[in-house]
Design goal:
mainly alpha; 62% helix; elongated
Length: 101
């Protein structure tokens, strides 16, 4: 037990990890990420597919983009959103598998 603390993450790291999982603890964001796991989409398409207004979608995407979970690519006037790192898909899949789906 004397060495145990040297293997634990720092308080700063645990704070970042908790913030990351807090972002995934929202139904709307999980649905957005699930849609983006299938294909890159713009706000209009996400809004239509998920049955949410564009303001809500934009707000949630901004939160996810600010921490690097999603990224954007401009195609003319349209901004496409996609998951920034395949590890995000893996995390979602682990949750689905854990729940037995």
């Amino acid at each position: 037990l004397d060495d145990l603390d040297s293997y634990l993450p720092t308080q700063k790291d645990t704070s970042k990890i908790a913030q990351f999982f807090a972002l995934l603890a929202d139904q709307t964001r999980v649905r957005l990420l699930s849609a983006l796991a299938i294909a890159p989409l713009c706000v209009t398409d996400l809004s239509r597919v998920l049955g949410l207004n564009q303001t809500t979608v934009s707000h949630q995407l901004r939160l996810l983009r600010d921490v690097g979970i999603v990224e954007t690519k401009r195609d003319g006037k349209i901004i496409q959103y996609k998951i920034a790192n395949p590890k995000i898909n893996e995390i979602l899949l682990v949750g689905v598998e854990y729940l037995g789906y």
